[in-house]
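Its record is set out here:
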Amino acid sequence: MSMRITFNSQFRDGAAGIDSASERLIEAQRQVATGRRLNKVSDDPTAASSSVAERSSLGAIEQYTRTADGVASRLTVVDTVLSDIVELLTKAQSVAMNGRGSTKTTEQRAAVAEELRGIRSALLDNFNTSFQGTYVFAGANSTTPPYTEGGGGAVNPYAGSTTELEVEIGDGRVVTMAFDGNTIAQGGDAEHLFDAMDDLMAAVTAGDEAGVTTGMTALERAFTRASGAQSRLGNDMNEIDSHKLRLQQMKLSSNERLSKLESTNMAEAITNMANAQTAYQAALGAVSSATRVSLLDYLK
């Protein structure tokens, strides 16, 4: 009876050893085959928790990167438009100069006024620029054209919002994506740029030198405002470029940390697999030997 108990005990212990060695071998083989050491929380609870936090951080970095890319595309359009506005205002001042002087004929003054009208129309188009369905110079009212022509061709007052829209491209880092166009077109003046140009055209047509001077001075102030807006925009674009580089580095660092948490050290994993294979074969051999010896002893 004692021999049977000993035999059963040895068999159970041996079988348990085989199961344990088999599990270690299977796990080692899985790590070598997949290249991952962390497959479920129970593999390493501490590393799994850190992995979840790292993936959350990586998700935020990727979202900021997409936002920065989108805003950069938008601001590139705005920068191009502001460059055109600055050029048009420079041209308007030059054209207005050609309308000055008592020797100008009525036809010459009319031609100058007509050229100014074309510049005014181009400026209106620029201020009503849209990007992906929204107006870039309408502030928070991004679906509303900031300037429209009313009866008689006069441009209506600013219909956009004085509240500009900002977007976060990183922790505590914001840039403007929808601008208050009236700070450029009017600023602190009594009338917006388009009314000032209408007055200038009327002055040129009438040969009103004082009126032409007043109009050119208004154009100069608008030029200063547009140049200032472009400078501010340039700072934001530089900030986006710099922050995108930081985001790329943050992403690389996060992926490296994630790899250390989740990925297998292949050399170590192969060594572990070899050791597990040896342990498994040893467990099988031990049970086989013990079983043969115990059975012979029992038969005796």
